[in-house]
Each structure stands twice: as C-alpha cells, then as structure tokens.
C-alpha cells in the first residue's frame, strides 16, 4: 500500500523554502528581509528574494501587499514579518 502524504505534512526545515517578494527602495521590505535572513539562517532553511518589479505575475498578485513572505509557495504574511510566527511556521 502506498503511503498517503498530506499537503501540510511536517517537513524538516531544510526541506522548506521561504520566498520574500519585495521591491527596491522599500523600507518594509528591508525590515522583512532582516527577519527572513535571521530565521532562515538559524533553522537552515533556504530562502530566495524575488523583485516584484521584474515579474508581472507577482506584481499583479501582490503589488498592494509587499513585502510578502511565502512559505513553500503559499502566502505566509505581508507588510510586517513576525519572527516568532515565521519560525513556528517553519518548524511545526
């Protein structure tokens, strides 16, 4: 019998991916990046930065919400990033 994997099944932090959707010159984006860098470094989670001005699809979807943090491709938060909440999302 093949095991059933649930969409939100627990995964090791290093198997997760955090994406920060941001734009140049955005002070909230700079603040969010500091939190993302810290949490991801502490937990060994890979992360990437995407520039909303370079991606029409991201711009269409998130232009009113930046910065936006995605965890495994799903929106986790926007505007302000709470360190404890992000850490919990990556370890639960």
TrEMBL record:
Pfam families: Glrx-like (PF05768)
Record InterPro entries: Glutaredoxin-like, Glutaredoxin-like_YDR286C, Thioredoxin-like_sf
Domain of life: Bacteria
Name of the protein in its database record: Glutaredoxin
Organism encoding this protein: Streptomyces resistomycificus
